[in-house]
From TrEMBL:
InterPro entries with a match to the protein in the record: ChsH2_C (IPR002878), NA-bd_OB-fold (IPR012340), Thioester_dehydratase-like (IPR052513)
Species the sequence originates in: Ramlibacter albus
Domain ChsH2 C-terminal OB-fold per the UniProt entry, residue ranges: 54-113
Pfam families assigned: OB_ChsH2_C (PF01796)
Organism domain of life: Bacteria
PANTHER family the UniProt entry points to: BLR3430 PROTEIN
Protein name as catalogued: OB-fold domain-containing protein
Length: 129
């Protein structure tokens, strides 16, 4: 997600992708009720005229579901997991994760930016380490 372009983005979607380019994971928030929305949602369903403000997400998330890929696609070296993670703020994102033996639904993960500037999610370090 580092400066990569996938088709045409609306101004709303560009706010999210511009944040990624600046190494910030942003979430859209309603200024009236503080509901946090997925980046594809353009308005709060309860306050459609209020607009949205963009806030930096904590980066903390939980694995919602995943699938292990044992055949490589694009530049990915197998095995790897494609997962849907739920940010602590509420929205869900898709991502790739290392295919660890103990990867499971409900596992905590965190977002960070790698040396190339791409957003990646990693499993949380164990508390006993």
């Amino acid at each position: 997600m580092s400066g990569q372009t996938y088709g045409h983005h609306t101004a709303h979607e560009r706010a999210f992708t511009d944040g990624l380019a600046k190494r910030r994971l942003l979430v859209a928030k309603c200024p009236v009720c503080s509901s946090v929305l997925a980046y594809t949602q353009r308005l709060c369903p309860d306050h459609p005229r209020a607009g949205l403000e963009w806030c930096t997400a904590s980066g903390q998330a939980t694995v919602h579901t995943f699938s292990i890929y044992r055949i490589g696609y694009a530049d990915r070296e197998p095995p790897y997991a494609v997962a849907i993670v739920q940010l602590d703020e509420g929205p869900r994102l898709s991502c790739a994760l290392p295919a660890e033996e103990d990867l499971r639904v409900g596992m905590p993960v965190f977002a960070e930016f790698d040396s190339a500037g791409s957003l990646v999610f990693r499993t949380q370090p164990r508390r006993d380490q």
